[in-house]
Inverse folding.
């Protein structure tokens, strides 16, 4: 609980503890490479100590076991050769006697100590034994270890001799019986036989020194190798760190160096690169959206300013001239101009509202039934009503060249696959979507044809269902370009060869008017874009029709693009995925009232 009575979260408490603990702060400040090298060295040091301790224990046990065996096996020999051992030169540990022998009677009283090893420098070492008259719990036949009692004679004593004399002893107590040569009776007693463990101590000291030297050399070598190995291992992470620093400075094009994805660093690099690609794409899309929004606001302000200025100007003109002769005729003209400007401004505002609703995901209902053939037929009739002299042909859309060979029989390369219009009856197509918005798409295209193409130029309108192999591809996220259209056509070719794919409705409107330049055609779906602004105002265009059409198609997860018509003109292609719906009795194929063939109902020629 805090001072205010509020509970403290466990994670927050742990973080606060780490901040308050100086040791934890210092550990957090140590680099990862240093931590790894330190961990490796600690593990090596611990492992070396464990191995050295185990070897010392093993050697110690082996030497003690060997000493015990020697004491047990040679006890009788030593006792029977006391006289000969006494005559041995005790001044040398190499050639002299190394046994300690002490005899005690049956009451454990010391009788004699016939053998006492002497070291160099008149140093004598004997085991520390129980006092005379007692064995202090010593078991017969069981060797035991005891400390040494050192006796130093006159003269200087070397350090090595003193060290040897202070080595512990291994002693065994044995019962013996001998025949008394004088009385002929049996004498019973205890013999204590001992051997110095100096050799064991010396061996263990050598092993310890050996392990110490080797351990230091190993630690130095391991430190160098671990530092190199850790630096080499962490090199990809350091590259990632440098890349992240560059990205932090604003360079979103940087990517983490790749590595095999079966490794942790490789998997991390791949994930980071995917994340960076998405971040860069999102940043660019956000930047493009921001730029478009700025341009949109600027263009909208400009477009709205024009009719408002006209309305304001003609209103001022009317006020200035209303007292002059002929004011009624001039007033009618001013009111007419004001009405036209207000009508244009109302249309512009309505288009802006439509775009705003679709940008927010509102104003569109994708759960309705749509008869695409009916939309095409109705739009054709609308265009015929606007331009009675225009020839309009209805039909279907097919892909030509999808099964053509790579090389024709005459050795020439065949034409690339493309969408073709075939005149005929409209194919009944029922899907799910927003019929009002899809009708608006075709209506906007037809309106552009009416405004910007000669009234005697022909128009073809067709709709068909094509199968394309586009797994996990959202057409709504593809740009409205010829490249996207070619990709769809290639997917139709793949589906034709594999026999599987997704069904798409393809609507095409082809005009044979003046067309557009390639650079203008690429910008046709931008908001407020018009190839000729002055002419657009004369024709009543706002520059938002194609932007609305694109937004509506993308809301249906579809694609719309404008391409050049063979021989001149503009061709609009709308592709949306088919969503299966249950047909009802009211979903009968659209038919023209005057003729069985819908394509003939909107055809006319010049009289």
């Amino acid at each position: 609980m805090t001072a205010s009575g509020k509970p403290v979260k466990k994670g927050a408490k742990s973080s606060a503890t780490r901040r308050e603990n100086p040791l934890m702060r210092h550990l957090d400040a140590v680099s990862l490479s240093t931590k790894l090298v330190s961990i490796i060295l600690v593990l090596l040091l611990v492992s070396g100590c464990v191995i050295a301790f185990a070897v010392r224990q093993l050697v110690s046990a082996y030497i003690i076991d060997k000493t015990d065996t020697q004491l047990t096996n040679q006890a009788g020999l030593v006792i029977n050769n006391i006289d000969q051992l006494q005559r041995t030169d005790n001044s040398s540990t190499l050639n002299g006697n190394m046994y300690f022998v002490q005899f005690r009677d049956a009451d454990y009283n010391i009788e004699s100590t016939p053998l006492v090893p002497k070291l160099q420098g008149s140093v004598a070492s004997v085991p520390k034994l129980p006092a005379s008259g007692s064995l202090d719990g010593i078991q017969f036949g069981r060797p035991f270890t005891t400390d040494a009692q050192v006796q130093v004679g006159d003269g200087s004593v070397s350090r090595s001799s003193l060290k040897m004399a202070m080595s512990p002893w291994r002693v065994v107590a044995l019962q013996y019986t001998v025949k008394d040569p004088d009385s002929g009776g049996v004498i019973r007693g205890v013999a204590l036989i001992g051997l110095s463990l100096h050799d064991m101590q010396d061996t263990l000291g050598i092993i310890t020194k050996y392990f110490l030297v080797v351990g230091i050399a190993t630690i130095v070598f391991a430190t160098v190798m671990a530092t190199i190995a850790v630096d080499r291992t962490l090199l990809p992470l350091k590259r990632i760190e440098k890349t992240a620093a560059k990205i932090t400075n604003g360079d979103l094009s940087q990517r983490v160096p790749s590595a095999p994805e079966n490794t942790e660093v490789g998997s991390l690099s791949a994930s980071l690169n995917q994340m960076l690609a998405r971040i860069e794409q999102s940043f660019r899309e956000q930047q493009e959206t921001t730029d478009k929004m700025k341009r949109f606001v600027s263009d909208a302000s400009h477009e709205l300013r024009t009719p408002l200025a006209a309305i304001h100007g003609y209103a001022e003109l009317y006020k200035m001239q209303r007292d002059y002769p002929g004011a009624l005729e001039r007033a009618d003209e001013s009111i007419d101009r004001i009405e036209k400007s207000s009508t244009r401004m109302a249309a512009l505002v309505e288009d802006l509202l439509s775009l705003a609703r679709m940008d927010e995901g509102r104003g569109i209902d994708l759960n309705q039934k749509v008869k695409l053939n009916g939309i095409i037929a109705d739009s054709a009739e609308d265009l015929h009503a606007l331009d009675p002299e225009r020839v309009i042909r209805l039909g279907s859309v097919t892909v030509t060249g999808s099964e053509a060979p790579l090389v024709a029989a005459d050795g020439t390369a065949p034409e690339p696959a493309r969408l073709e219009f075939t005149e005929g009856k409209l194919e009944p197509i029922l899907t799910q979507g927003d019929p009002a918005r899809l009708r608006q798409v075709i209506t906007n295209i037809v309106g552009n044809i009416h405004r910007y193409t000669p009234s005697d130029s022909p128009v073809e309108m067709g709709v068909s269902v094509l199968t394309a192999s586009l797994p996990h591809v959202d057409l709504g996220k593809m740009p409205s370009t010829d490249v996207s259209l070619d990709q769809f056509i290639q997917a139709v070719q793949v589906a034709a060869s594999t026999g599987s794919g997704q069904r798409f409705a393809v609507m095409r409107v082809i005009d044979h008017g003046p067309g557009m330049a390639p650079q203008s055609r690429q910008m046709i779906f931008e908001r407020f874009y018009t190839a000729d602004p002055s002419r657009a105002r004369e024709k009543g265009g706002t520059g938002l029709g194609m932007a609305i059409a694109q937004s509506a198609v993308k809301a249906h997860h579809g694609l719309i693009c404008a391409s050049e018509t063979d021989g001149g003109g503009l061709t609009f292609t709308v592709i949306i995925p088919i969503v299966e719906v249950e047909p009802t009795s009211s979903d009968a194929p659209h038919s023209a009232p005057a003729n069985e063939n819908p394509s003939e109902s909107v055809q006319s020629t010049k009289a």
Notes: The CA atoms of residues 169 and 196 lie 4 Å apart. The first helix runs from residue 10 to 20.
